[in-house]
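Figure 3 (text version): structure tokens given as input.
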């Protein structure tokens, strides 16, 4: 289990800024409080830079790895129109990764270093993409509900403090909203289709629900970085806040389709106005994000292959008078 608590985090916070010039820190925090955007050449605490690189880099990796589970369905999508739509979605996700790598680069870490950290397993990416998309219905559930979760998170954080990241998020959210409509359309089609189609989408939803609950990050009392990220308006809501917003928006829509969720305790608590649910299995979450999920090895192997097979292209682009040619194999 995670050992950190909010109280320990509060104590840690002052240590994190102990080496900063107090005057500069106060000015920086006043700008954050006033809702200013921080730009790459502005002064910022080392911890702000470090946290942003960590979070934006992980986000970029999530987009690029996130294209893989759905990508496996491009060749098998039912019908030409679905195939075109899925191909466009997958291309968008890879494009989001490019925007995010560029935003992270403004903070001083090169794209090459980020991609190396990904393929060496030094850097995390979203837990959800370590699960397989077993059927076409899984791709529909991903496009609807993972994109929905991503929008909840990114719409809130697009009001955050770091200019290059929030501008990337605004653009990404616009495209994700389209993905969400595409995913919803696919889920509705299956849920209102034949008994077999309904069964398929129900099974996919049941499979994906635990990873979706994990998607928003560990509960607030276990989260390590939330407090400092919220203090500096990088995260505009805690993990539990985001999870609650998602449940509020999507559980009624799921139930309206006559689909069920695999949590007998899931209900809106009239007294608190919040959703009650069974505490997600945080040990499984920790295992999966640290490399031991059903598809971690496969996902990284694909990225490694792309890195190796695409090397000559990158080298050719970087060198004008290039002697590089495509390998024969
Ligand atoms: N998966 O202290 P916290 C998408 C890690 S984009 C893996 O609470 P924080 C689009 C966390 O890194 C999806 N690891 O962390 C799409 C930390 O480990 P570290 C990605 C996770 O940063 C759709 C440790 O646990 N979205 O889906 C996860 O305050 C369809 C402690 O956690 C973003 O990245 C997780 N779910 O909050 C693509 C949005 N949660 O670094 C294709 C930006 C936590 O100390 C198809 N990121 N961890 O080793 C965020 O909003 C935050 O970073 C959170 C985590 C909320 C993800």
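Below: residues designed for each position.
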């Amino acid at each position: 289990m995670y050992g950190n608590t909010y109280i320990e985090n509060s104590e840690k916070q002052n240590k994190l800024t102990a080496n900063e010039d107090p005057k500069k820190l106060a000015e920086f925090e006043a700008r954050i409080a006033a809702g200013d955007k921080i730009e790459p050449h502005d002064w910022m605490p080392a911890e702000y830079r470090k946290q942003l690189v960590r979070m934006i880099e992980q986000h970029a990796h999530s987009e690029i790895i996130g294209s893989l589970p759905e990508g496996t369905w491009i060749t098998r999508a039912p019908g030409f129109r679905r195939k075109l739509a899925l191909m466009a979605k997958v291309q968008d996700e890879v494009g989001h990764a490019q925007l995010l790598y560029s935003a992270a680069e403004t903070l001083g870490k090169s794209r090459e270093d980020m991609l190396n950290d990904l393929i060496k397993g030094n850097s995390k990416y979203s837990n959800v993409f370590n699960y397989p998309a077993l059927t076409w219905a899984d791709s529909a559930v991903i496009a609807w509900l993972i994109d929905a979760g991503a929008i909840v998170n990114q719409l809130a954080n697009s009001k955050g403090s770091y200019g290059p990241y929030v501008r990337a998020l605004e653009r990404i959210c616009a495209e994700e909203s389209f993905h969400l409509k595409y995913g919803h359309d696919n889920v509705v089609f299956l849920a209102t289709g034949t008994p077999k189609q309904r069964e398929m989408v129900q099974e996919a939803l049941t499979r994906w629900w635990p990873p979706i609950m994990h998607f928003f990050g560990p509960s607030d009392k276990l989260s390590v970085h939330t407090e400092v990220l919220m203090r500096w308006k990088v995260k505009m809501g805690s993990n539990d806040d985001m999870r609650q917003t998602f449940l509020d928006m999507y559980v009624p829509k799921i139930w309206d389709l006559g689909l069920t969720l695999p949590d007998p305790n899931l209900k809106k608590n009239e007294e608190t106005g919040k959703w009650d649910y069974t505490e997600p299995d945080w040990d499984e979450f920790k295992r999966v994000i640290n490399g031991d999920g059903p598809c971690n090895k496969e996902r990284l192997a694909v990225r490694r292959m792309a890195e190796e097979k695409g090397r000559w292209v990158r080298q050719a682009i970087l060198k004008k008078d290039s002697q590089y040619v495509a390998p024969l194999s």
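Residues 54-55, 58-59, 62-63, 66-67, 93, 124, 126-127, 142, 146-147, 150, 153, 214-218, 223-226, 229, 235, 239, 289 surround Phenylacetyl coenzyme A (CB under 6 Å).
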